[in-house]
Design a protein that fits this description.
The protein is mostly beta strands and about 250 residues long. It contains no helices and 20 strands. A 5-stranded antiparallel sheet has the order 16-17-18-20-19, with no helix packed on it. A 4-stranded antiparallel sheet has the order 4-5-6-7, with no helix packed on it. Strands 8-9-10-11 form a 4-stranded antiparallel sheet, with no helix packed on it.
């Protein structure tokens, strides 16, 4: 971002300037291979100054960069095996100039850890268990028209697990079925007020899922001959009220 490409190379995070065609910075801090790197997008569209990485040393590092130079970094420790996937959601409040972050990381220890960064304080909020399987990718977003975070997880059991944050804790809402092999990637995208989830798997398919606000389901009318698309409906609490969504 800001013209720089960040990627993992052995135990380092490398900053590359494609205009100059050269490496302009190297971030050292991991003690084993770097598996995932992501710039942290700001809601106001300004240039990114922070990025996060996860590695086989079982930790994440939150880096702050200014003009291609390292200014500060924070280690996030808690996983007991390698970190294989991560995502970050920026939660910026109009009353504060600071950017609060919500971070999700998946590890080979079969857990998804949820972290928060408020100012300079970083803490682990929750550890979600994925059973005997492995989560291979995670993606965070906000439910349409609300301040409720939603987390999508894809892994080796062919299902996409959706969690929403309620009272500070993520709770499972839905399991999306359709893929027939390991799910390698999941990514949220907003379009015209609706939220879309793209998922790719080793079954050679990319599936697009649509999530939108809806009305509470009506009672059955007995119209058995009416054909309707199948919808997965769930309800969340948001600012004291209930919101209904379908996917």
């Amino acid at each position: 971002r800001g013209g720089l490409v960040a990627f993992g190379s052995c135990r380092s995070v490398v900053l590359y300037d494609p205009q100059k065609r050269k490496v302009v910075g190297t971030l050292n801090g991991h003690t084993e291979r770097v598996n995932c790197v992501q710039w942290i997008h700001r809601n106001d569209g300004s240039q990114e100054t922070e990025l996060i990485s996860g590695g086989s040393d079982r930790c994440l590092i939150l880096w702050e960069i200014r003009s291609g130079k390292l200014v500060n970094y924070i280690r996030l420790e808690g996983h007991t095996e390698a970190v294989c996937a991560l995502d970050v959601l920026s939660l910026e409040h109009q009353s504060s100039a600071e950017s609060n972050l919500l971070i999700a990381s998946a590890g080979s220890d079969s857990t998804i850890r949820i972290w928060s960064r408020c100012g300079t304080e970083v803490k682990c909020l929750q550890a979600l268990q994925s059973g005997k399987g492995f989560v291979l990718d995670v993606s965070l977003s906000l439910l349409p028209g609300s301040d409720v975070p939603i987390l999508a997880c894809g892994g080796d059991n062919c299902g996409i697990y959706l969690y929403t944050q309620q009272d500070g804790q993520f709770q499972k809402q839905l399991v999306l079925q359709g893929h027939e092999d390991w799910i390698r990637g999941v990514e949220w995208a907003v379009c015209d007020g609706d939220l879309f989830l793209a998922s790719c798997a080793q079954d050679c398919l990319i599936r697009i899922w649509k999530l939108q606000a809806t009305l509470p389901p009506l009672l059955e009318t007995g119209e058995e001959d009416v054909i309707r698309l199948k919808e997965n409906i769930f309800t969340v609490n948001d600012n004291g009220g209930k919101c209904v969504f379908c996917m």
